[in-house]
Amino acid sequence: MRDLQDRLGYLVLIATAVAYFAVYTTSLGRPPGSFDYLAILNTTMPLALVAIGQSLVVLTGGIDLSVGGVVSVCVAVTAATGGAPGWILVVLLLGAAAGLVNGLIVAFGRIAPILTTLATLSIYTGAALWVLPVPGGSIMPEVRAVLSNPNIPTALGWLALAVAGWWVLRRTRFGMRVYAVGSDETSARAVGIPVERVKTAVYALSGLCSALAGVFYVSTTTAGDANAGAPFILTSIASVVVGGVAFTGGRGSAMGAVAGAVALTLVIDVLFFAGIDPLYQSLFQGLFLVVAVLLGTAAALLARRRTT
Amino acid sequence: MNLPRLGMLFMLVVATACGTATEPPATAPEGKLKIALSNSFIGNQWRVEMENVFKAACAMPPYATAVECSVFNAGNDVSTQSRQISNLVSQGVDGIVINAASTSGLNGVVQQACDRGIVVVSFDNTVDHPCGLTVNTDQVKFGQQLAQFVVDQLGGKGNVVMVTGVAGTGADSDRNKGAKEVFAASPGIKVVAEYSGMWDSATAQRVTAAQLPSLPKVDGVWVSGGTDGVIKAFADADRDMPVFGGEAENGFRKYMAGTLTPQVTGMSIGQPPYLSVVALELARAVIKKEREKGNLTIPFPVVTGSALTPGETVFPDLPDSFFADFTDSGPDAILILCQEAATDGTPCPGKTLDVKLGAP
């Protein structure tokens, strides 16, 4: 049963994927084609990346609301500079630095993550508006062809890279420490884990993930918008929840969050092809979230009953 | 423990690589056309009216028999709207009419729609991509025209307040740019405050009420949206009523007409909700090859002075927040719609809709 909770994200993903396949095929009389898969992949990439970062922070028992601001500012800089490789590097450093600031305030300033990141969210969003006051900008076609090519699934390679990165990370000493801090901060400290440094690092990593998401966003949409990041705040948290990462910290995985992100994207398509009245779509999206979370809670309860 | 994870990844890879079903063929423009409205945000009065008149138009002749309409809302989330448009492309619609969540964020997917021969027309918050057509008003002119009215009324001398819209949007920056040009050109005019009312009457009222105590005598107010809220804040503070240049809120027009007191001198210009219907007509005409591809800029419906016609430019039985410019008026009207089209999205009884696009 413990496993069930850990795998919640994958189960939800499989269920929504099956539903998507079913409603698509009934609605159009043919299975989804390469165009559909590619479009899903490319539009999910930014959310999947933000969700990876968010899950790292949630694993330590924190939360990062500033992802919206970091994505916005990175989108703004990428679009304003046209996304030349040198500038992409600058954007990634910028995102990591923005995350680092969050981490330093949370870990050493001992200010609650929700307050810290709410404040920095405003700051980063403001900076994005300053860089790109009006939507626009561009991306080099070469960069787009490599990152989110609309004809070949190049993004799949990058997603695989992110998955591999997580896989390696969780087996390193740092990865273990992230789980240790999230499970029980006091005992982690007692066994000599530098809790502050671990926390600072996860926020910096979250910033880096948001920066990557920003670059992919510009690459997919071919332009930037200083308000681009705002939706990612709630959707990344929703992905993490659907992905079975516990808000108390220490349980779950970034891969679950990625599965959650893909599932959330597919829900939009399921509602579309099921012909749900658009006015009620957000209602159903909300219901989906509630059901997914309830499933997770039920699984956790069952697990507890077994162990006691 | 890690095997299922690898398995999932493998499944995803296979699913993506194997998806080789053929793309929908470009449908010949015969029979009933499929045109979809993809809207972003639906949570304000203007968007609701915009969708209602679209639905009403689709249910009225000639559209009732010529076009099969569908409507989708995405919220202010670019990725959701982008998914919906991708799905419309998969469905093989003939045309997509868009009010975008971001002027730039849909460029990628719009390009894909164009590549498949779908006619894309965006309006209000338009899409940048040159392959799509746009229907809009000139937002810079909106700012200029209202500012010029305020300057003229004040004889070129006085304190002016600017209530702006949602920062970061194209319409907001264009309107502000137009207004500032005019104010800057009149040395006697002093802009004493500039703040955002978020294009929302309640927000505009709250922010104005908060600002007023710190402001000197205000002679003119330029409002990008939420005009009735700003007037209420001035009335509540017992301030002298300045001259107003504002949007087309029904409440503002009630003040102008004297239905609500105090009566206000003003000019009301609106971004008309019927842009969605004009976009529908342009899409239909282009698909049917009755019209060359080309962008369209339509004139603003403008109302000044106190001679307002109930049922045409002001609606005493509709709420203040209603946008009174859901229908055009006068002899050169682009289109005429009835009240129930805007309130309920139902067709105007016994009427055939005639949308005049003007010369291409």
Description of the structure:
The complex is a heterodimer of chains A (308) and B (360). Chain A is an all-alpha fold. Chain A is built from 14 helices and no strands. The longest helix of chain A has 27 residues. Chain A starts with a helix and ends with a helix. The model of chain A has no long low-confidence stretch (mean pLDDT 89). Chain B folds into two domains: 143 residues, Rossmann fold (3-Layer(aba) Sandwich); 131 residues, Rossmann fold (3-Layer(aba) Sandwich), CATH 3.40.50. Helix content of chain B is 38%, strand content 17%. Chain B has twelve helices and twelve strands. In chain B, helix 7 links the parallel strand 6 and strand 7. In chain B, helix 4 packs parallel to helix 5 and helix 8 packs parallel to helix 9. The longest helix of chain B has 16 residues. Chains A and B meet through helix 2, helix 3, helix 8, helix 11 and helix 12 of A and helix 1, strand 2, helix 4 and helix 5 of B.
